[in-house]
Amino acid sequence: MKDFKAATDLRKKIKKKFSLGTWIQIPSQDNVEILSNSKKLDWITFDLEHGNFNGSKLIDMIRAVEKSNKVPFVRLQSKNQKNISNLLDIGIKGLIIPMINNKDDVIKILNKALFPPFGKRGVGYTRSNMYGSKFRENMNFKPIIVAMVETKESLKNLDDILSLKYLDGVFIGPYDLSTSLGVTAKFKSKIFQDAVNKILNVCKKNKKFFGIHVVEPSKKDLSNTIKKGFKFIAFSTDAVLLERSINKYL
Hints:
Order of helices and strands: HEHEHEHEHHEHHEHHEHEH
CATH class: Alpha Beta
Number of strands: 8
Strand order of the largest sheet: 1-2-3-4-5-6-7-8
Strand content: 15-25%
Number of domains: 1
Largest sheet: 8 strands, parallel, barrel
């Protein structure tokens, strides 16, 4: 079990410059080991919303991420997910919350993710504190919390959402956000770009980091995303990388 240094260092890095990660949808420990070994990536997110995971496979994949000294995240299945403390107990260091609409949605997650007096997470011996040997270190660590902006309502309430002290930043779900705005997958449209610029400006004002998913594995798109000021960038997914690779070479 790795300690909390990688996650603490990642939080510091994002404040100074951008950080790259990727998305896992296929429950394969081998795939996770291969991607975690990349020197370009700082973190790996397990997609519980659209992926296919169960508890036993997830914990082994977390171990694969830790082995490369990278930071394991999950995108929660929903903003109402109940087993958040269990995910943190088995070693997850960051939570990405889908379909956030307002401040109260985030507060509910913070209460489940943070130990008292900051939240209501239960205290006990778990894998996250190496069954007691890193108890204090675990109690002092706050998971990296990221809210997904992917609805019209979240755009409207963004200032209010970003006022929360223990929310680290926001992350654009480009497909859901563009769909909510009536321009599905039209990422170059003025409507979508105006929304992106609004999010960027509000994040800067509130001193929160700003992330997005670059789903298609394009170096050009990634470079443009970095230039725009995104700090927390998911580059593609394991499934998309496999699918695009086979089509590229056959």
